[in-house]
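User: My instructor asked us to take a sequence, write out its structure as tokens, and then describe one feature of it. I'm not sure where to start. Here is the sequence I was given:
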Amino acid sequence: MGDPVCVAVVANDPMLEAGATSALRSCPDLSVVTPGEPAVVTVVMVDSVGADELAAVRATRSAPHRPEVVIVATDVDPGAAQRAIAAGARGLLRRREATPVRLARTVLAAAGGDCTVPPDMLNRLLDGGLLGDRDLAAAGGWSAAGLSDRERAVLNLVADGHETSEIARTLSYSTRTVTTVVHDITRRFRLRNRAHAVAYALRAGLL
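Assistant: Let's start with the prediction itself. The structure tokens for your sequence are:
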């Protein structure tokens, strides 16, 4: 197992900061550092996503160590989500949905280069081109090629937020098989990452 991912928490409310810090420390794959220390991911706790919050995202992303940013907001609408992703945020969670497990998964996904947003916002972000919409014509499109039962089973669990090891245990596959399935899907349909694959499958009615 590799070194834990360093993550920092920034919040105006000390209680929120303490709660998020405690939640992240419960994940052995994460190491919480103080704001200002080099971090791979910075979690920003806010009430809403407005101009000041977007400026904070840009400032964080332009820091010398250029951490990825995960926003946890009390509430956020699709328009605010679009602006946050455009500003450089790599993950977005509503506070009521930010359980310790889900927060940790979102941070780890951001560290791995994946973008995580609430499922109900995926279509809007894809339509806006903010999740790297690619031309699928060469691949014949989702509807033409479809997904195998194994691919659909894996993507369903990815859509539910499960990690590769959890998917492997649930489906009685090896972790290498799960990784290969996801890789094959993204390569075949020329997609960027797991979130993009799930979004396209949902849009095509294949999940």
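For the description part of your assignment, you could build on this observation: Residues 25 and 200 are 33 Å apart (CA to CA). Try explaining in your own words what that tells you about the chain.
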